[in-house]
Design goal:
Elements (H helix, E strand, L loop, with lengths): L3 H27 L1 H5 L3 H28 L5 H25 L10 H29 L4 H25 L7 H10 L13
Helix pairs in contact: 1-3, 1-6, 3-4, 3-5, 3-6, 4-5, 5-6
Length: 195
């Protein structure tokens, strides 16, 4: 059973998840040309889109079932986590089949995608364990709190995947420090370098 003090969190979470899924559909339709090509890079974009949808759908399903009176959050968490684990397995197999995880040919963006998928495995396993704990002990408020935190983590991960899907700019501390050390900084447009 969901404690009263966290009920409002799941109400807000369900609303946010619905809005983010709608925005993701818009982003996918905008990036549709990129997703329809037959290249290996296209498969990476498809995996990013599906990963974001999986993270947001997980948050939506858990939040909505948490609002249903009775003991629904435990079974919902277990079911959605199992579906999420199936997605991750399929995505990792896809990366392997496409040859994107072969030794010596791996790009940093593919490694980052693989790490994100491994992160999803951790989230879904934790969610599965906590869901089983709630099924065994319906009054386990700590397990519900942990699931709420996992919902937040799904939001953050899904937002990151969506940002990469639309080709948003990437800023990493390592990349920026390397540019600074090498003296490669961007000059503002129209600025005279001799001044």
């Amino acid at each position: 059973m969901v404690p009263d003090n966290i009920h409002d969190f799941f109400v807000a979470s369900a609303s946010v998840a619905g809005a983010l899924i709608g925005l993701l559909f818009v982003a996918i339709s905008v990036a549709g040309g990129r997703l329809a090509q037959g290249k290996a890079e296209t498969q990476v974009h498809r995996i990013r889109a599906t990963a974001a949808l999986t993270a947001f759908s997980n948050a939506l399903a858990v939040s909505l079932f948490a609002l249903v009176p009775g003991h629904k959050i435990g079974p919902a968490s277990v079911s959605v986590a199992a579906a999420g684990l199936a997605f991750v397995a399929a995505a990792l197999l896809s990366l392997v089949q496409m040859g994107l995880l072969r030794r010596g040919q791996v790009r940093w963006s593919i490694v980052r995608d693989a790490f994100f998928l491994v992160g999803l495995v951790v989230i879904f396993v934790l969610q599965l364990v906590e869901g089983l704990a709630i099924i065994a002990h319906a009054d386990d408020a700590d397990a519900v709190d942990t699931i709420a935190i996992l919902v937040i983590v799904c939001f953050l991960g899904g937002i990151g995947r969506s940002w990469e899907l639309i080709g948003g700019p990437q800023f990493g501390i390592g990349h920026e420090v390397t540019k600074l050390v090498r003296g490669q900084h961007d000059e503002p447009a129209g600025e005279d370098k001799t001044a």
